[in-house]
Write a structure and sequence with these properties.
Chain lengths: 209, 209
DNA sequence: AAAATAATGTTGCATTTGCAACATTTTACA
DNA sequence: TGTAAAATGTTGCAAATGCAACATTATTTT
């Protein structure tokens, strides 16, 4: 899996983190980490655990904008966290490394011989996030629950390179991701099964077409 | 507006483009530019005109994944263009500057004194795209046409800093962006008007709440 | 192991939506 | 300036969906 320190030795990693004036902060499960931190331009690296970026509605609804897993990055400049409307919630026990955005282009850092790798990794990680968001947009623009499910399954199947794959969500989370009513989604899954499009066993899905 | 050469003099811009072995290619309106180009890892800069990245369904439906305006960037590494499913279509007479992704971290380029600005600009542009995609996801996750419209208007209003703003789309394009039926959208706009939530005059909208 | 909690499955019903088919208005352009 | 083409507006109706309320099955906790 990609990470910000790919192709950088652990020794250089430490050197880099020191140059970037990084800070490592541990959190418990279910904590809103942005309420603690009031950094200006930061990049957060999930060193352990995972996060969700949640957008809170004026109606009190909350939308999961993004799941941030281990080694992924987030931040107000590289992603979009408006402190008023967004919350960053730990999904489990999580450790975050904070680096100051402005430091990533400090002369010291640029001079190092691992800088190229660092910049490439950063761009790669952002590109991956763009990819993930494009995928979700592709799915969300489908107009029926059926088409959303089939598009999602198509993407999973393509990634796995197989007609058989595992849904990496609970069904509650899946309904959230697709932005549909959970019970209506269950119903549609039933129809897809009885009509012979798919076979479902727990979280394991097989496409029959 | 942001662009890849912000804070870089035009002289240095030319120098940089030469170092990056860039190529400038003009296109007519309505052309699928990816069919012509078969580059490996490239970044395309819209120097003039504008593009749409279109995703083509197995059903023959096409979804506009993204509008790329002047000075914005696209590419298979920084965005997500799978040549099998995606098309990049010019919306008008358009000029694209292609640079080789691998060259942006070549030793020559890194040594220049404008490299910091260049990298920062690149990251900034990608961050803007992430932002745009997050906004669209926020909108698309709303479950009714009404809520999609109101969320979209809220964002426009916030950006403008005013209850009065102009929709930068035709209604056909807006319906595409919201991923709803155009006539159903018109109907909902009518309801919002008669219920006194908004006032619409052409593309000019005023929020009354 | 029992109890509590969370996840999943089911179904009736009202609402929303897409779709189709058409009318009207605006814009492009020959 | 007149005509074609594109954009916008309207409406009936069938289909899809959210919602609510509940049943059943898994999972966690004590």
């Amino acid at each position: 899996m990609e990470n910000l320190f790919e192709n950088i030795s652990s020794k250089n990693r430490e050197k880099l983190l020191k140059m970037l004036k990084s800070q490592s902060i541990p959190y418990r499960k279910g904590v809103n980490i942005l309420s603690n931190v009031n950094r200006d331009n930061f990049i957060g690296i999930v060193d352990e655990g995972s996060l969700q970026i949640v957008f809170n509605d004026y109606n009190g609804n909350s939308i999961i904008i993004e799941d941030i897993e281990k080694n992924q990055i987030f931040g107000n400049l590289i992603s979009s966290i408006n402190s008023d409307e967004c919350e960053v919630i730990t999904k489990e026990k999580t450790k975050i490394i904070y680096i100051d955005y402005d430091n990533i282009t400090s002369p010291d850092v640029i001079k190092t011989d691992f800088y190229i790798a660092f910049v490439k990794n950063l761009i790669k990680l952002m590109a991956t996030q763009l990819n993930n968001k494009n995928e979700r947009i592709e799915i969300l623009t489908k107009r029926t629950i059926r088409d959303k499910l089939l598009e999602y399954f198509r993407i999973l199947s393509k990634k796995k390179g197989s007609k058989i794959f595992t849904i990496p969500f609970s069904f509650i989370e899946l309904a959230n991701y697709l932005s549909v009513d959970r019970s209506a989604m269950t119903r549609e899954l039933k129809y897809l099964k009885t009509e012979g499009f798919i076979k479902v066993d727990g979280k394991r899905v097989r496409l029959l077409y």
